[in-house]
From TrEMBL:
<dbReference type="Pfam" id="PF07681">
    <property type="entry name" value="DoxX"/>
</dbReference>
<keyword id="KW-0472">Membrane</keyword>
<feature type="transmembrane region" description="Helical">
    <location>
        <begin position="7"/>
        <end position="26"/>
    </location>
</feature>
<feature type="transmembrane region" description="Helical">
    <location>
        <begin position="103"/>
        <end position="122"/>
    </location>
</feature>
<dbReference type="InterPro" id="IPR051907">
    <property type="entry name" value="DoxX-like_oxidoreductase"/>
</dbReference>
<feature type="transmembrane region" description="Helical">
    <location>
        <begin position="46"/>
        <end position="66"/>
    </location>
</feature>
<dbReference type="InterPro" id="IPR032808">
    <property type="entry name" value="DoxX"/>
</dbReference>
<feature type="transmembrane region" description="Helical">
    <location>
        <begin position="73"/>
        <end position="91"/>
    </location>
</feature>
<dbReference type="GO" id="GO:0005886">
    <property type="term" value="C:plasma membrane"/>
</dbReference>
<protein>
    <submittedName>
        <fullName>DoxX family protein</fullName>
    </submittedName>
</protein>
<keyword id="KW-0812">Transmembrane</keyword>
<keyword id="KW-1003">Cell membrane</keyword>
<comment type="similarity">
    <text>Belongs to the DoxX family.</text>
</comment>
<keyword id="KW-1133">Transmembrane helix</keyword>
Amino acid sequence: MIKLQAPLAFAARLMLAFIFIVEGWGKIGSYEGTLQYMENHGVPGLLLPLVIVTELGGGLLIAFGFQTRLAALALAGFCVLTAILFHRNIADIGEFIHFNKDLAIAGGFLLLAAFGAGGWSLDAMQLRRAAPAHRI
């Protein structure tokens, strides 16, 4: 299994990042509709640019494995907030599923924050480059 750690971590990062890249990009294309949706849920529309940067930027950071731990913490928090702000009506089965999905994705990001991006990442590449400089 050790030989599979790097490719599995890479695949997991891509799977986690995909939805955020797509959704962040989609919010740019449907800015007004997203703004209205946010405001209908009591979230100020002024936060939409921050949401787009968090989703699109954070998703790209996760995909490339750059600053992974910080990006993963930010996206975990984003997922928990999304669950609470937008999917709190757990009496509705669809909302309950979305609430649970957001919490599960947050859990995946917390694992990334705890264990890092894996060997196939820009973070690992930086560590490999820095390692010889620290040797005596």
